[in-house]
């Protein structure tokens, strides 16, 4: 069997498996994974109800922080947590990567054998995602200008997932017109961008007034978003897109291409 035949068989097998899963999902199968995919999680208590696998309750396995007791496992069909804040798609993608520790920090690069794991500003502290975005002295200098004194204890507590949950719930007292969630997301992205520019651009210096720069970016994003909304309303039109029926006995399933 040559390589072309093998690849062709893999493609056929992949299509067959996807068709089988699609049939189960759309035919009302009572298998557990189908029930999970068919719901959106809004009515599920993430901690005290069974929703991950049969017989598993998280509150029987973990000590749940008080600020996370009301979390709901709202899911998209692609399995990604739905992140709801008004920020450009590039910012949403960045925050998803940060939440899942996918940023190329020194800690991650050290596991690849590329460099040491320490922060270049803290010296003897490992540069993780959370360190860059919150605990590094450079980041703390920004957050101290934003977070009220009485909220700093909660803000600087918890690991990555807990920290994201705390801020996504707009738990920080905030009086500016834009919500805290959006401002926090833009601040995180700026901190990561400035960190990278310090490493790769010899003449770069961080802004003397970082909060002002961040506020300006948030305002620009908000203005652009509102303008896009107005333009979309003006240019909106209905286009009828036809669907061509397949030959009898065939079905069509669109995927992201597990086998190209």
Structural description of this entry:
This protein folds into 2 domains: 3-68, no CATH class; 89-235, no CATH class. α5 packs across α6 and α9 (180-200) crosses α10. The longest helix has 26 residues, at 210-235. Mean pLDDT is 76; it is low at 1-7 and 75-84. The two termini are 19 Å apart. The chain is 47% helix and 0% strand. It is mainly α.
Summarize the structure.
Residues 87-143 form the Reverse transcriptase zinc-binding domain. The protein is an all-alpha fold and 260 residues long. 47% of the residues lie in helices and 0% in strands.
Rough outline: extended
Q: How widely separated are the two ends?
A: 19 Å
SS summary, helix count: 10
Write the element-wise H/E pattern from the N-terminal end onward: HHHHHHHHHH
Number of strands: 0
- Largest sheet properties: none
Mean pLDDT: 76
**Gyration radius, to the nearest Å?**
23 Å
Q: How many separate domains make up the residues?
A: 2
Uncertain residue segments: 1-7, 75-84
Helix proportion: 40-55%
Strand content: under 5%
Which structural class do you get from the secondary structure elements? mainly alpha
Pfam families: zf-RVT
InterPro entries: RVT-Znf (IPR026960)
Protein name: Ribonuclease H protein
List its traits.
260 residues, mainly alpha, 2 domains, 10 helices, disordered N terminus
Describe the protein's topology.
Blueprint lengths: L2 H24 L5 H7 L50 H11 L6 H6 L17 H7 L1 H7 L8 H4 L4 H9 L11 H21 L9 H26 L25
Helix pairs in contact: 3-9, 5-6, 9-10
Organism: Trifolium medium
Protein name: Ribonuclease H protein
InterPro entries: RVT-Znf (IPR026960)
């Amino acid at each position: 069997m040559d390589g072309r035949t093998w690849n062709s068989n893999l493609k056929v097998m992949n299509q067959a498996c996807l068709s089988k899963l699609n049939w189960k999902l759309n035919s009302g199968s009572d298998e557990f994974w189908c029930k999970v995919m068919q719901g959106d999680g809004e009515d599920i208590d993430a901690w005290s109800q069974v929703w991950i696998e049969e017989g598993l309750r998280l509150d029987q396995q973990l000590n749940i922080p008080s600020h996370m007791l009301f979390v709901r496992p709202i899911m998209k069909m692609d399995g990604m947590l739905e992140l709801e804040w008004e920020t450009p798609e590039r910012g949403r993608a960045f925050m998803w990567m940060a939440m899942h520790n996918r940023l190329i920090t020194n800690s991650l690069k050290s596991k690849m054998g590329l460099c040491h794991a320490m922060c270049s500003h803290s010296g003897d502290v490992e540069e993780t995602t959370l360190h860059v975005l919150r605990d590094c002295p450079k980041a703390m200098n920004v957050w101290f200008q934003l977070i009220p004194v009485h909220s700093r204890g909660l803000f600087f507590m918890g690991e990555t997932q807990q920290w994201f949950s705390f801020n996504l719930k707009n738990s920080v007292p905030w009086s500016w017109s834009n919500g805290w969630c959006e401002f926090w997301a833009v601040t995180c992205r700026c901190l990561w961008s400035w960190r990278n520019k310090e490493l790769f651009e010899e003449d770069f210096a961080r802004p003397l007034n970082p909060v002002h720069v961040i506020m300006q970016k948030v305002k620009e994003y908000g203005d652009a978003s509102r303008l896009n909304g107005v333009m979309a309303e003006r240019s909106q039109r209905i286009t009828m897109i036809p669907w061509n029926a397949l030959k009898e006995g065939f079905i069509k399933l669109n995927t992201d291409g597990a086998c190209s």
